[in-house]
Design a protein that fits this description.
With 358 residues, the protein is of the alpha/beta class. The protein has 2 domains: 50-171; 185-357, no CATH class. The chain is 63% helix and 15% strand.
Length: 358
């Protein structure tokens, strides 16, 4: 089985973007796609959960309100009885003070203010007894009223109550869905790249596949074909094979995309990468390959674009455009020119290049 290194580029981009958006629960592309597919049912599940939650709250409110009414009435009666008892005790003290025969004028003077005080307390209590009772049960009455208002709101606005309860969970779910929907092109790209990887994995262990190969040039390479400098390259798949190195670009494009002039040409993209990579590869590794009596050897680089959905009818110079079904046949058709140890040496050099560049 083909040796494989690195995740596919589009999946790496998806994971990076999700991480930047504080979304971390998705561990694979399948989970992301499954989330998209299940979004309507996930949303309905949240609403159903909160419907049950609000229904339960309503039942608990009915029970609690009834219980509180009994408690409030009981507290009202008990406290009122307590105040009435206090009034009776004060009245008894008043009568005692009135009937008491003082043995001296000084004692009369002392008893008189007590009698006045008792009468004042009785009058004050009798006047404010209802107010005191209401103050005593005020907190319970307030809680009872809040629960009654809540119950009435639920009965009259059940759907609104459900959506208010579910708002935070729905907002979180919709946030993830919107972020993932914005990654649609990467998801399509990752699906295409995964198909290519699965196909190439069927090759024997003589082959080495390096996904999402990136190279940053500290000294930019001048591209005389486009008259500009190349500072970095990215290749979807680098396949090191006994017949050479294949630069493979994957496009999961529709027929409409093939004619979209705003999309950068994948032919130019892979040719640009080939131009820069050829110079780096053949300057650095050729000397370690076994010598041929005719002269120095080179590592051939072949450009492939794999079209997952639609393929143009045209042929292109220096680039082979293939369907997924044609890919393995094209690669294995070419005669081997490198031994297994040389394939390993070339792939190790390419991997070191990538690590050093990053």
């Amino acid at each position: 089985m083909c040796k494989v290194y690195n995740s596919v580029a589009c999946l790496t981009a998806i994971k990076k973007h999700l991480h930047e958006c504080n979304i971390s629960e998705f561990k694979s592309l399948r989970e992301v796609i499954q989330f998209q597919k299940n979004f309507p049912s996930l949303r309905q599940n949240i609403i159903s959960q909160h419907q049950r939650k609000i229904e339960k709250e309503k039942e608990e409110l009915i029970s609690h309100i009834s219980y509180m009414e009994d408690i409030i009435e009981k507290d009202r009666n008990n406290y009122e009885q307590q105040l009435q008892k206090e009034i009776l005790e004060l009245k008894s003290k008043t009568i005692f003070s009135s009937n008491f025969s003082a043995s001296s004028p000084i004692e009369k003077i002392i008893r008189w203010p007590q009698k006045i005080l008792y009468k004042w307390k009785v009058l004050r209590l009798e006047k404010n007894i209802n107010k005191k009772v209401e103050e005593f049960i005020e907190t319970s009455v307030q809680v009872h009223q809040e629960k009654t208002d809540r119950l009435q709101y639920i009965r009259q606005n059940f759907d609104n109550a459900v959506m208010e309860s579910a708002a935070e969970s729905l907002m979180s779910l919709e946030y993830k869905y919107n972020i993932i929907s914005g990654l649609e092109s990467y998801i399509h790209g990752a699906l295409g790249e995964f198909k290519v990887v699965k196909t190439l994995e069927t090759l024997s262990d003589e082959y080495v596949l390096i996904n999402d190969f990136k190279l940053l040039f500290h000294n930019p390479i001048y591209n005389h074909l486009e008259k500009n400098y190349i500072q970095s390259i990215q290749i979807d798949h680098l396949l090191v094979a006994p017949s050479g190195v294949f630069l493979i670009e994957t496009k999961n494009w529709s027929k409409k995309s093939l004619h979209n002039l705003d999309l950068y040409s994948p032919v130019q993209q892979v040719k640009r990468a080939n131009f820069a990579f050829y110079r780096i590869l053949n300057q650095g590794i050729v000397h370690s390959l076994s010598k041929h009596h005719w002269g120095d050897r080179k590592i051939p680089l072949r450009n492939i674009i794999v079209m997952i959905n639609s393929k143009p009818k045209e042929e292109f110079q220096h680039v082979k455009v293939l369907t997924l079904d044609e890919l393995i046949g094209f690669i294995t058709y070419l005669d081997p020119i490198f031994s297994q140890s040389e394939v390993r040496r070339i792939s190790d050099y390419i991997l070191d290049l990538s690590r050093f560049s990053s």
